[in-house]
Amino acid sequence: xxxxxxxxxxxxxxxxxxxxxxxxxxxxxxxxxxxxxxxxxxxxxxxxxxxxxxxxxxxxxxxxxxxxxxxxxxxxxxxxxxxxxxxxxxxxxxxxxxxxxxxxxxxxxxxxxxxxxxxxxxxxxxxxxxxxxxxxxxxxxxxxxxxxxxxxxxxxxxxxxxxxxxxxxxxxxxxxxxxxxxxxxxxxxxxxxxxxxxxxxxxxxxxxxxxxxxxxxxxxxxxxxxxxxxxxxxxxxxxxxxxxxxxxxxxxxxxxxxxxxxxxxxxxxxxxxxxxxxxxxxxxxxxxxxxxxx
Length: 294
Known about the structure:
The chain is an alpha/beta fold.
């Protein structure tokens, strides 16, 4: 396999701009909403241009691009209010060959036994799909985790599969599932993905913290297989300290080489992308590029 793009998430440290500016729910009003979304969309435009100028074509858009868009108290028509801005961003992303993804937060739990939590999760995932449908209707990806175990992982997996059908058609097409550092390892994720015929995202640090049984090469080959003709994406972080799964500012050289070497040797004639999950964001990507690690 061959590495295509490196990407980073939400914030550009070089520009000091974020796509995640938000406010308190108690301050939700039309003026605050228009001001904040305008800032986030302009930041996204500036980041797209900067990324292209610096050879970066993969970016995770912040979930707060439209703050509280999935909340019951949100009553604004953001797709109408910002139709021109989204049309411009779609054109710009296509021109510069950008790959976009989004990653709802930790409270987006599709397999919760609490109906209200599931309802909120469905609304949140559908909101992400609406955003990506305006930017990259054919290529957008929404990354989530399987959720909690709730004392019975078998039942929890079944709930995820059952609740998946409640998502919008576009959300179902865009959703991809990532292994986590505590509950659902790579094998668990593959089990769900096979059932739903959805792609699996493999995070190497999460695997180190919560390893699946069996051979890693076999596991990764199965992961790549879930993507069909699409370009797989992987996640990498370096561990801060010797315990837990906290991320470092940059990616350690040995961590990157180790993971890239494994993926490169997988028996597929296709490209892949890696999302860099490091606290220094774009600067962590530039460091890898400047030191000829890619």
